[in-house]
Amino acid sequence: MSNDTFKVGTYEFTSRLIVGSGKYKDFETTKLATEASEAEMITVAVRRVNITEAGKENLLDYIDPKKYTILPNTAGCFNAEDAIRTLRLAREAGGWDLVKLEVLGDTQTLYPNVVETIKAAEVLVKEGFQVMVYTNDDPIVATKLEDVGCVAVMPLGNPIGSGRGLANPFNIRVIKERANVPIVVDAGIGTASDAAKALELGADAALINTAIAEAKDECLMAEAMRDAVRSGRKAFLAGRMPKRSFASASSPTEGYIWD
Amino acid sequence: MEILLNGEKMDVSAKTISDLIIELGLETRMLAVERNLEVISKSAYDSTALKENDRIEIVHMIGGG
């Protein structure tokens, strides 16, 4: 287990939990929960500076880019062009080349717009970005994104922020079985068992934000997710027992005192 | 001169990107600047002149998932 690292592109991590930095009540909680999660990679969003609030505290005053791998995202982008612009700016801001591409379809479902996602991925890969890509739980699309050159494919478990767990565990497994790049379950994880399940199915990692940030005790949930991801990974590596239709006695069926 | 800064019209006296950042009181750490859809690298802030009606975007990182 000790050398069971999570490799993405040219990066290598010990933790298989990626956390988000959105929706927290304040920066201090973001920092404490992120520390509790023991994640090494954290997503951030790129937004306009509020000119009237120059000099105000920034997320990166609390999340040290020297300590964490910062994963800029394209949340809120609904077309390839905006996503590409956003990540070019992120790379200039912090020098980050490992990025999370997400191009959304509409505001109600936040489901990915796969056509625009593929378009953006093609350009970003050519420009030297290492693209971790948010997508549907569709095995054909996952293969396409891998072919385009993405370094990780991140199928959703359920809509972003819904906390409903894995809608289609079978597809997550199929995507993993066909993939030659890491598979990260991104979106939909609501509690620890969902995260464990994702890793048990073979996902290489899980990306979790709302489930931690909206927990009553954010740090405790961050720990729960940390442990769940580790347990799920161990169970996957251990290889689960087969499912049977009928019982199979755990105690020997001979040597009874009445025989 | 008038520019479009982060989507809003603004009168500035800055002549370059460097001047603009100072005028706005921003720290350049972890910022990125786009001028007319083109990313400006930090090393070019001094040499990039602002022109009337330039569309400037200045972004930073915030919490997100």
Give the topology, please:
The complex is a heterodimer of chains A (259) and B (65).
Chain A: E1 6-8, E2 11-13, E3 17-19, H1 27-37, E4 41-48, E5 69-72, H2 80-94, E6 98-101, H3 114-126, E7 130-135, H4 139-148, E8 152-155, H5 169-178, E9 184-186, H6 192-200, E10 205-208, H7 210-213, H8 218-238
Parallel strand pairs in A: 3-4, 3-10, 4-5, 6-7, 7-8, 9-10
Antiparallel strand pairs in A: 1-2
Helix pairs in contact in A: 1-8, 2-3, 3-4, 4-5, 6-8
Chain B: E1 2-5, E2 8-11, H1 17-24, E3 32-35, E4 38-40, E5 55-63
Parallel strand pairs in B: 1-5
Antiparallel strand pairs in B: 1-2, 3-4, 3-5
Account of the protein in words:
With 259 residues, chain A is of the alpha/beta class. Helix content of chain A is 36%, strand content 16%. Chain A has helices at 27-37, 80-94, 114-126, 139-148, 169-178, 192-200, 210-213, 218-238; strands spanning 6-8, 11-13, 17-19, 41-48, 69-72, 98-101, 130-135, 152-155, 184-186, 205-208. In chain A, the strands form three sheets. Chain A has a five-stranded parallel sheet. Chain A has a three-stranded parallel sheet with strand order 6-7-8, with helices on one face. Chain A has a two-stranded antiparallel ribbon with strand order 1-2. Chain A is globular, with a radius of gyration of 20 Å. Chain B is 12% helix and 37% strand. Chain B is globular and about 35 Å long. Classes of the chains: A alpha/beta (259), B mainly beta (65). The A-B interface holds A 20-24, 30, 43-49, 51, 54-55, 58-60, 65, 70, 72-73, 75, 85, 88-90, 92-94, 160-161, 207, 209-210 and B 5-8, 10, 24-27, 30-34, 37, 39-42, 57-65. Strand 4 of chain A pairs antiparallel with strand 5 of chain B, so a sheet runs across the interface.
